[in-house]
């Protein structure tokens, strides 16, 4: 579904991501792992158009998306969450999800500014899309609560709903289990499995090895910006280069 070829970006002298070639197959769960500072979030920032790569290419569903802007990437069907939850605490859960839905249609925003008749249809469409996303993450009944009133786990789900509201084919999750206790982590794993069973493709960055090993179909290991290993959880967990990266620093 997604293929990156020789992907790289430099920040000054630092190769945050360097010559990474990897695929994210449709209908599967791909985990991106690696020590802190390995380039995992940067990799997601490149795919989602937040950063423009210095080298390489990104293809999604047969189309070259290397130079697209973030909203163009979203409209192609790629959505992401952020490592730190970026929800609007004072707004309702539903309003948060609606913001996620609107990101898909910049034209809709322009129309809204010009106050055309389409504005009201967009409003209704974005409400429906947002409610569907909330239903998928189990928050339909909390839709009218302020997002800040939810538990931390609930707020994480709001973040996922904001991404789902753009109706993506590929969902990128950056450390979705960060700060979660074991029970919340198990719930999150069930949610991700349900989303994939419903046809979504998921790639996630995660530190919790129990989650990665229990969930991922395949793993890509980054270290100092480079891909040092890839394969099934079983293959990766006995790869000497991976063991060295984690133990040797
Ligand atoms: P990870 O998510 O694997 O912990 P990151 O992708 O966040 O790592 O960062 C990889 C490296 O790139 C780090 O050394 C980080 O400091 C650097 N980096 C990330 N984003 C920027 C940026 N916008 N400007 C400069 N350096 C950055
Ligand atoms: Mg990161």
TrEMBL record:
Keywords: ATP-binding, Nucleotide-binding, Transport. Signal peptide: none annotated. The keyword Cell membrane does not apply. It holds the Pfam family ABC_tran. Gene3D superfamilies: P-loop containing nucleotide triphosphate hydrolases. CDD domains: ABC_Mj1267_LivG_branched (cd03219). It comes from the Bacteria. GO terms for molecular function: ATP binding. Residues 2-249 form the ABC transporter domain. InterPro entries: AAA+_ATPase, ABC_AA/LPS_Transport, ABC_transporter-like_ATP-bd, BCA_ABC_TP_C, P-loop_NTPase. PANTHER family: AMINO ACID ABC TRANSPORTER ATP-BINDING PROTEIN, CONSERVED COMPONENT OF ABC TRANSPORTER FOR NATURAL AMINO ACIDS-RELATED. This is ABC transporter ATP-binding protein.
